[in-house]
Design a protein that fits this description.
Thioredoxin-like_sf; Glutaredoxin; five-stranded mixed beta sheet; 2 domains; 170 residues; oxidoreductase activity; alpha/beta
Length: 170
């Protein structure tokens, strides 16, 4: 009789301990970047499988977003600083952005990285239903989302994190 009365509380403690362990373990886990396919302004087709082994910066933006336009020179500078070391950038224009505006912006600013137009909203949806611009994601060599920035990133801190991620094994 005594053993059965102890079994309930012991089972509860064991379940709580197990849940705590799972929570602790999941804290170190990162979300995988979704599998996406996209077409760049020049018509070339890519997919996120090609990001394997690279550190990727994915920037959701719009030509009508003044913050996006203001931060774009820093995005360009970040790309230029790290591109020779296994870093790449993808600028994803939001579905509501007129394609002609996006193409004109990319050409007039001579953006040195891939620019895709998310005309169906599918890319933003796969990355967690991104609505606010700018939203920038930093993805490590293993395809895990390391950091999500809503608004302009602290670029000095971002560069430090990119350095760290480039130094990691793939």
């Amino acid at each position: 009789m005594k053993a059965s009365r102890l079994l309930g509380p012991l089972l509860a403690v064991a379940l709580l301990a197990g849940a705590g362990l799972l929570t602790y373990q999941s804290l170190g886990q990162r979300d995988k970047a979704p599998a996406i396919s996209y077409v760049l302004l020049d018509g070339s087709k890519f997919d996120s499988a090609q990001w394997q082994g690279k550190v990727m910066l994915v920037n959701f933006w719009a030509t009508s977003c003044t913050t996006c336009v203001a931060e774009m020179p820093e995005i360009v500078a970040t790309h230029e600083k790290f591109k020779a070391r296994g870093f790449d950038t993808l600028a994803v224009a939001m579905s509501y952005d007129p394609p002609a505006y996006v193409a004109n912006f990319a050409a007039s600013r001579k953006l040195p990285f891939g620019v895709a137009i998310d005309n169906t909203g599918a890319i933003a949806q796969k990355f967690g239903d991104i609505q606010l611009t700018p939203t920038t994601l930093l993805i490590n060599k293993r395809g895990e989302i390391v950091k999500r920035y809503v608004g302009t990133p602290d670029f000095a801190a971002l560069h430090g994190l990119v350095e760290k991620l480039l130094a990691e094994a793939g």
